[in-house]
TrEMBL record:
It comes from the Bacteria. PANTHER family: COMD, MAJOR FACILITATOR SUPERFAMILY. Belongs to the major facilitator superfamily. TCR/Tet family. The lineage of its organism: Bacteria, Bacillati, Actinomycetota, Actinomycetes, Kitasatosporales. Keywords: Cell membrane, Membrane, Transmembrane, Transmembrane helix, Transport. This is MFS transporter. One of its GO terms (molecular function) is transmembrane transporter activity. Residues 1-10 have a biased composition (Basic and acidic residues). The chain crosses the membrane at residues 29-52, 64-84, 96-114, 120-141, 153-171, 183-204, 216-235, 241-264, 285-307, 319-337, 349-366, 378-398, 410-434, 486-505. It is found in: Cell membrane. GO terms for cellular component: plasma membrane. Residues 1-20, 513-547 are annotated as: Disordered.
């Protein structure tokens, strides 16, 4: 291997190169460890969901069951931006390893819980770690891989996400049936240990020493604000009426905390969320598109299985398989889009194509009724999945390309946070619309008896549906069809906002290497293992043109 000529390179540039250049032989191992960690982050709730009835049967506490999920979601959302900032200030590797350890400790404690209260508390600990997993994965990829090459690797991460969504419920059900619900948490330990060992041994990034202090006040205000908003979307329309005092108080607390947070960020030496990153037009547009993608994606994942089970008579056992057309389409398109981005360096077309397909997919899904076949609904889902495939990782890629390297963590955490908040609002708002429509149609078609059937919940599983009289069952199927029609029409309307935003995205050249620059293997491109690559790596410290 020829000796690198660094005598003419400024010391500051050399430091940047060292940060951007891992050892070539370790690159693939690092990426494998990142994929395992991403799998941990995505699998957890998917695996735990099927175990919930068994958990209640063992620990009791049915009235607190929702908190098993809520505690995890709250901790994850609130800690996400903080993990991103810690990585920027003190080094990516240390914060990432800490997040993995906290997640594994929370998993072990959750598996050992002896009461519902303990399980809820331990799930909160697990969620704190989970907040740093997704952010750490994306930020480390941002450190190691130039944006020009990053698309195909982020496409691989979308594939991991799809595998988790499809296999999670199946794995969770099998583990619970054969080994007990505690192993739904213990399964994280061997996977996490492998990822921990691989990252510790092969990931070499320089340690950082922050010049300022952690913005504790900003972190506290942001945590309170995010927690209040997540609780509003979780409790609104279910635990409490939307106009109840509790929900209004939470909205007031959330808004006041976030306004206070914005004032604090303007004066903080090391703000948790530097507001200057929003001065870049592309970053702000990606935040909007990411929020809307999360809003509609998780709404679709909630109501599509429900429609297929209630209206088309599909089995609830293989609920993950019901989403195969959408998830496979999403995975395939994401990988192709990533490869094309790496080959051409162009990406502006993808947000436009993705939002067009997303609007089209939701409009088609809104046309489904009690006579729609599974083949037809599968084709509609494939259209929607293709749209999401264009958007899932391109939004992260463009967001990272729009900031300086020193803000890579907060850019990654912000993009993740906006998508998470979008999913919370989407499930809540689309769920409220769906439930109201189901109640109205049941009352119209089945009178008082229909109202009694759905007064507890607008969602009935297949087993309970079989027990209903034929007339009530027919009314319920029409009600679910009407409810999904309204929810998916809302999804189409919200997606139009993302479509409009996508036309304002500016084609800023992706920094870094690519096939057009140098025909090298993956490891060489990632490592910047030549003088030309070193120069390109140094070029990644510049910020994309703000508008």
């Amino acid at each position: 291997m020829p000796e690198k000529r660094t005598e003419a390179v400024p010391r500051k540039t050399q430091a940047v190169q060292q940060e951007a250049e891992p050892q070539p032989r370790s690159v693939r191992v690092v990426l494998m460890a990142l994929m395992i960690t991403m799998l941990l982050a995505m699998l957890d709730n998917m695996i735990v969901g099927p175990a919930m009835p068994t958990i209640v049967g063992d620990l009791g506490g049915m009235e607190h069951l929702s908190w098993v999920v809520t505690a995890y979601t709250l901790a994850t959302a609130a800690s996400t931006p903080i993990w991103g900032k810690l990585g920027d200030m003190y080094g990516r590797k240390g914060s990432f390893l800490t997040a993995i350890v906290i997640f594994l400790v929370g998993s072990a404690l959750s598996g050992m819980a002896q009461s519902m209260g303990q399980l809820i508390g331990f799930r909160g600990i697990q969620g704190l770690g989970a907040g740093g997993l997704m952010v750490g994965v994306m930020a480390i990829i941002g450190d190691l891989v130039p944006p020009r090459d990053r698309g195909k690797y982020m496409g691989m991460m979308t594939g991991v996400m799809a595998v988790a969504m499809i296999g999670g419920p199946l794995v969770g059900g099998s583990i619970t049936d054969h080994f007990g619900w505690r192993w739904a948490f213990y399964i994280n330990l061997p996977l996490g240990a492998v990822a921990l060992a691989m990252v510790t041994s092969v990931l070499h990034l320089p340690k950082k020493k922050a010049q300022g202090r952690i913005d504790y006040l900003g972190a506290a205000l942001l945590t309170v604000g995010i927690s209040a908003l997540v609780l509003v979307t979780t409790w609104g329309g279910s635990e409490y009426a939307w106009g109840s005092a509790v929900i209004m108080e939470l909205i007031g607390i959330g808004v006041a905390s976030l306004i206070g947070f914005l004032f604090v960020q303007k004066k903080a030496a090391e703000p948790i969320l530097p507001l200057h990153i929003f001065h870049n037009r592309n970053f702000t547009l990606m935040a909007v598109i990411g929020f809307i993608t999360g809003f509609v994606m998780f709404g679709a994942m909630l109501f599509l299985p429900l429609f297929q089970q209630s209206v088309q008579g599909a089995s609830a056992t293989n609920s993950g398989l019901l989403l195969l057309p959408m998830l496979l389409s999403m995975m395939a398109v994401s990988m192709v889009a990533g490869r094309v981005t790496t080959s051409t360096g162009k990406y502006r077309l993808f947000p436009i194509a993705g939002t067009v397909l997303m609007v089209t997919g939701f409009y088609l899904l809104a046309q489904m009724d009690t006579g729609t076949s599974r083949l037809t609904s599968g084709l509609y889902m494939a259209v929607l999945g293709a749209g999401m495939g264009f958007l899932m990782q391109i939004t992260m890629l463009v967001a990272q390309n729009s900031v300086e390297m020193k803000d890579m963590g907060v850019a990654s955490s912000s993009a993740t946070l906006f998508r998470t908040l979008g999913s919370s609002f989407g499930v809540a708002i689309m769920g409220a619309l769906f439930n109201n429509r189901v109640h109205d149609v049941m009352a119209e078609r089945a009178g008082k008896l229909g109202g009694k059937v759905t007064e507890t919940s607008a969602q009935l599983d297949a087993e309970h549906l079989k027990m209903l009289p034929a007339a009530i069952r027919d009314a319920y199927q029409h009600a679910v069809s009407a409810g999904t029609h309204s929810a998916f029409l809302l999804g189409a309307a919200i997606s139009v906002v993302a479509l409009i935003a996508s036309f304002f995205v500016k084609e800023v050249p992706l920094r870094g290497s690519g096939p057009a620059d140098k025909p090298a293997g993956d490891a060489d491109k990632l490592a910047g293992n030549a003088d030309g690559d070193s120069a390109r790596a140094a070029g990644r410290t510049t910020v994309a043109e703000p508008v």
